[in-house]
Amino acid sequence: MTSMDDGTSASTPTNALILPDVIYPVIEQLDKSGYKDIQTDLRTTFFKLEELYPGFSRSFLQTFINKEMPSLSSTINMNELTLKLEKYCDKSSYFISSSRSEQEFHELNIRSKNLKRILSRIPDDINEKREFLETIKEIASAIKKTLDSVSNTYQYFKTADGRQALENEKKEFIKYSKNFSNTLKAYFRDSKRDDVYIAANHLLVQTDYLLRTIKLYCETDTLDDCLYPLLSHHQNQSRIISSSRYSSNSNQQSHNIRQSSSSSSGNNRPTSSYETGYT
Fold first, then answer.
1. How would you class 163 by CB atoms within 10 Å of its CB: exposed for 0-12, middle for 13-18, buried for 19 or more?
2. Residue 28 lies in a domain
3. Domain count, the chain
4. 189: containing domain
5. 17-44: per-residue pLDDT in tens?
6. Which long-range contacts (CB under 8 A, 24 or more apart) does 157-166 make?
7. Any idea what the Cα angle at residue 238 is, between residues 99 and 150, rounded to 5°?
8. What is the per-residue pLDDT across 93-132, written as a single tens digit (0 to 9) for each?
9. pTM recorded for the entire structure
């Protein structure tokens, strides 16, 4: 692994993954050591601290490593670590529950899980150019299939607010997908792996937010908000981006949206195709 990074704002997606991919799994093991009664309180405390002080969990983990495992402190890269750990963590709570038996939701779960799994392979595959190029092709295909599956759930949204929320999250997902594509192009020029890890972590987080929107409007179960650290930051950023977008020239806005997604069908379903631009 490359050297440990400093947890700057550019690595916000990694900060959001430290809790579910590193801290929470450790807390879940406390019941085996006789500390099950403090699990919920500890989990909630970490979440609240992360919300109040974005990056707290990352700093806490780095401090622990520096003190308890100093030999590793200069070699662990948090952006790489969270990306690799994604495939080992139990993320079942993020996906659409079995209470929705429709095929569209089942397909969405499968495709979004596959996207996360392929993204988590990047640190292992990036060392071999041929393998990495194949992984990139798989990611592009997985992104498109995930977006198509998201569009297929549109029919189950009963309110205009829900449909607009889904459309907003899709646009965010597409934006970060394009950012990932551009980062890959830059990587083949400058070989900055860490930028690739951060861009991939952005996609992991955006996939969670996209699924969260569907769960919020299509499930009756109460959401566990502790699963989504830095959600308030994400929502604030979305509002800023949205405000900026709507203040621009309307013709340019329409052009940008067409570039990021295909035209919606006659029944006003949200757009779903994704132009990767990897080549």
1. middle
2. no
3. 1
4. 81-260
5. 999 999 999 998 887 777 777 888 999 9
6. 157/217, 157/218, 158/217, 159/217, 162/216, 162/217, 163/270, 165/213, 165/216, 165/217, 166/213, 166/214, 166/217, 166/270
7. 35
8. 999 998 899 999 999 999 999 999 999 999 999 999 999 9
9. 0.81
